[in-house]
Amino acid sequence: MQNFTTKIVNLMKSEGLYASQGGPIILSQIENEYQNIERAFLEKGPSYVRWAAKMAVDLQTGVPWVMCKQTDAPDPVLSSIWREDIHKYHGGTNFGRTSSAYIITAYYDQAPLDEYGLLRQPKWGHLKELHGAIKLCSTTLLQGAQTNFSLGQQQEAIVFQEENGGCAAFLINNAKQNATVQFQNLFLELLPKSISILPDCKNITFSSAKVNTVFNERIMKSAQTFDSISSWEEFKDVIVNFEDASLKSNELLEHTNTTKDKSDYLWYTLRFEHTLSCTKPILHAQSFAHVAHAFLNDIYIGAANGSSNVKNFLMNIPIKLNDGMNNISILSVMVGLPDSGSFLERRVTGLTTVAIQCNGNEFYNFTNFEWGYKVGLLGEELRIYREENLGDVEWSKNGISTNQTLTWYKISFDAPLGNDPVALNLSSMGKGEAWINGQSIGRYWISFHDYQGNPSQIMYHVPRSFLKTSGNLLVLLEEAGGNPLQISLNTVTIINTQ
User: Which residues make beta-bridge pairs with 68?
Assistant: First the structure.
């Protein structure tokens, strides 16, 4: 951690970016909400906080250091709860596989500047008025002496007074109704649950409860459909069998430690000779990954998945075994790494038990068995989402089939006219990942619904910088189901609603 932090700080220093060097960086943060997990480390937690703070301060950036939501931050490091709101002023996109577990690509899309860089009103306008009021009294706030006093049972004043007469006040009304208060010989009406700013201690220039900005609404307009079946091509990825495995072990390996996060996918595969009497065999598997797809003798037999709240799941699938040799292949899938928590290195992902239940007490237990493993899919390995690698596999040019498993789809398209932001509507797809001109716009899991029966996300941001005027390449990897003929490319605009 010290090596990484030092490297980043030195990069900033080399470009003269700190305010102490005349640059724009006015403060830095070390750690992030560590206090949420600090107690799990007992006496080592506070010791680590002190170490991290001293390590950061010793780098001598010339600007203050903060720790977010860290009440035991040692001097001179500041404990801050507002720092995170700075980057939450502008939404963004988690492209590629950068999202943590089950986190959608749209990051804080409700920000004053949304994911597409568009103004979200009235937030933007209201905050602009707030910033204007603060700027009017910025010198007084920095140089004045602060005093706090009561204006009533649920009303309070915070006043900054300079020696040269400059004065600024924040009047707070915590009541659920209007309140009339007397402040410096003035009778002022404060709106419910509000903070009023008086940059000169005389006139209210801003009230947090008074919104003057016109509301707006974001509109998605379809710019292009992809319903021409002859324009699509597909490639069915390879189902990995035991003979294809690049790694073998006599136990079930942990998923993330095996993939090293080079891919979301890990094949678990085995072969066995069926000798028991099984009239109605059932494949049982428990997984601490996010999704599992099962194949028996190269035939897809079913899938199961957890969720952001369900950390493990069971897969119980009735199957039909061949007499003699059989091959089971289970594709374990992660939808991002965990985002926080203590002892992350102890988290277990992937399959933990696999068995086939036969009649009565007869069963095959494969938990401790010779397993074969392969990280990733063939299409991933060959990077067939890039134009220069398309020829590395044979794409079917006789139209496409929908609702398939482990299928890659590709199509060319022209960029929508104009400069409006662009989004891809993937509401007809199942689960997978999408690429535009070799750039991943993120994972999707449309077929996984929330408690209200809705997908987490259907619109996926496509930056204009990813697009060419014509001849753009769209590649979809679909794990299970989905119909690419019903997706669409949309432009994003805003309209006033008042």
Answer: 32, 80
